[in-house]
Structures are given as structure tokens and as C-alpha cells.
Design a protein that fits this description.
This protein is mainly alpha-helical and 193 residues long. The chain folds into 2 domains: 3-90, no CATH class; 93-191, no CATH class. 79% of the residues lie in helices and 0% in strands. It has 9 helices and no strands. The chain has helices spanning 3-35, 41-59, 64-77, 83-87, 93-110, 113-125, 129-143, 150-166, 174-191. The longest helix has 33 residues, at 3-35. The chain starts with a helix and ends with a helix.
């Protein structure tokens, strides 16, 4: 079997799995609507939609954003919620602030900024795992004044942490270092604001 047909089979299997998951979610949605026939319409539709969305989040390879968009769309179409309520989450200024931060993180990650930051951390705080963790904490603390979202700070520094892990020596326990730095990054971003 050549590589091209193998790639086609993998893509076909992924599409087939997604189709089966979507059909199963629709059947689940319909069954919940019929079994909860004594409950108010809005509650039935909301319960069925949440159950189908959770099923798709767990079993399908569809993205979380796509499944969430489908769930909100179904709730609006079935009149379980109004259009204003469905779109109200996108009307806040903090959404655009987070989007701008994610765009900035992507722009910085496309340059060699992550490698330069990793080398700076290793040169200033020593080549030890504890020193690297302290350096990451200090960078997170400085970033918290300019980047308000913890998710954006994590997105911004994750490539730096990957470079530090990749540059670790042979005598270093890579699994422990990975756990230390990744969990430290997550907690550090949360703690710093």
C-alpha cells in the first residue's frame, strides 16, 4: 500500500467517524426530545442540545469551536433562546482583547522570539530545571502587566517551554522536566493574574 492511498484511507476514516458521530448525535438529540415530552419545550431542546454537544465533544474529531457554534445555532433555530441571547457572548470588549492577544501571540511565535526567550531564561537563571521554572515565572509576572488573559500568556510562552525541554541534556529526566515546566507554566499563568 503506497503512502498516498494510506493517507486517503486515514482521511476517509476520519470523515466516516465524524459522519457516524453526527448521525448518532442527531439520534440522541431526537430521542431526548421524545422521552422528555412532558417537560417545557425550551428545557427539552436545551437538554437535548447539551447532551448531543457533549457527545460530539467526547467522541468526534470536530473542533470544540465548531460544536459550540452548532449548539448555539440549534438553540436559536428551535427558539429555545433568542438571537440576542445567543450572540450576547460576542458583544463584550474582553472578547476582542483576548482575540488581539492571541493574534499577538501567533505573530510572536512565527518569529524566533521563543528561542531567544528560552536562551535568555537559560542564560540568566542557570541550566537547572528550577532556574528555568523561576525564569518562566518571572516572564509570566512581567507579561501579566501587558497581557491580561492567562490563556494568551500560556500560548505565548508554550513554544519557549518547548525549546527549553528540547534543549535539555541527555542526563536530564525529560518526562519530569516536561511535567515541571508545563504544569509550572499553567499554574504560573493562572497565579499571576
Amino acid at each position: 500500500m503506497n503512502g498516498k492511498s494510506l493517507l486517503y484511507n486515514i482521511r476517509f476514516n476520519k470523515k466516516f467517524k465524524n459522519a457516524v458521530c453526527l448521525i448518532t448525535a442527531v439520534i440522541l438529540w431526537t430521542l431526548i426530545l421524545f422521552f422528555l415530552h412532558k417537560i417545557e419545550w425550551k428545557v427539552r431542546v436545551t437538554t437535548a442540545t447539551i447532551a448531543a454537544a457533549v457527545f460530539l465533544w467526547i467522541f468526534s474529531e470536530l473542533s470544540l469551536a465548531l460544536v459550540s457554534f452548532m449548539a448555539v445555532t440549534i438553540l436559536i433555530i428551535t427558539k429555545a433562546i433568542t438571537l440576542n441571547l445567543g450572540l450576547s457572548g460576542f458583544a463584550t470588549g474582553s472578547l476582542f482583547l483576548i482575540l488581539a492577544g492571541l493574534m499577538m501571540a501567533q505573530a510572536i511565535n512565527n518569529t524566533e522570539f521563543a528561542q531567544r526567550t528560552a536562551y535568555f531564561v537559560l542564560s540568566r537563571f542557570g541550566g537547572t530545571p528550577g532556574g528555568a521554572l523561576i525564569g518562566i515565572f518571572l516572564i509570566l509576572l512581567i507579561l501579566s502587566f501587558f497581557v491580561p488573559s492567562a490563556a494568551v500568556r500560556i500560548t505565548l510562552l508554550l513554544p519557549t517551554v518547548k525549546v527549553i525541554i528540547d534543549r535539555a541534556g541527555e542526563n536530564c529526566n525529560r518526562r519530569n522536566l516536561t511535567c515541571l515546566l508545563i504544569i509550572g507554566l499553567a499554574f504560573g499563568a493562572t497565579i499571576t493574574g
